[in-house]
Amino acid sequence: DHISFHSNVKKCIHATSARSNVKGADSEMFQTVVVCGPPELKQTLWPDHCIQGSFGAEFHKDLKTFPNEVRVNKGMKTTVDSYSGFWDNGDTSHTPLYNMLLNNGVTDVVVCGIATDFCVGFTALDAARHGFRTVVVNEAIRGVMPDTSAGMVARCKAAGVEFVSSASIPDLVKEKDVSGAVDRIFK
């Protein structure tokens, strides 16, 4: 029943604010509406995706995972979308990611995934905003649309986020002794 899903907004005539140019019942996929909230926010309407417990929320079969890894869920509040791994789009609620990183002495955040123009970009912006050295891996990202991806990359670079090739990651890690922080996180 997440507000970001077009199928849900279309069913719920009260989901969109009176200030929205497009009403839920008349909305189309990828349009932007103003949702009621609180807080009242602009929301892009997406196809249903990454639904907890579904195939679309699974990690790719080739992704190496660890038994003691830490997973941070986002998008848990149905009334507001959460592009960032740190905050929802209204900055009204946060995930435990910031405190976990801080409490474990992490200073650098490496971001990859989809979509450059939304989840990757907003996670990188929030990591930089919170004072972490933030790196995005070029070969490990993909955007929804070229123009919005380019705009997000420019925003991130202006905020101090570095975009690097995957080949440079070992050198970045060698610049710092990160082994202790990594060991603490994966206990």
Secondary structure elements and pairings:
Blueprint: H1 6-11, E1 32-35, E2 41-44, H2 97-103, E3 108-114, H3 116-129, E4 133-142, H4 146-158, E5 162-164, H5 169-174, H6 179-185
Parallel strand pairs: 3-4, 4-5
Antiparallel strand pairs: 1-2
Q: Would you give an account of this structure?
A:
With 187 residues, the chain is of the alpha/beta class. The protein is built from six helices and five strands, in the order αββαβαβαβαα. The strands form two sheets. The chain has a three-stranded parallel sheet, with helices on one face. Strands 1-2 form a two-stranded antiparallel sheet. It is globular.
Calculate the mean pLDDT score and round it: 80
**How are the strands of the biggest sheet laid out side by side?**
3-4-5
Helix content: 25-40%
Instruction: Give the overall form.
Output: globular
Quaternary: single chain
The first-to-last residue Cα distance is 35 Å
Order of helices and strands: HEEHEHEHEHH
Low-confidence stretches: 177-187
Q: What is the beta-strand fraction?
A: 5-15%
Structural class by SSE content? alpha/beta
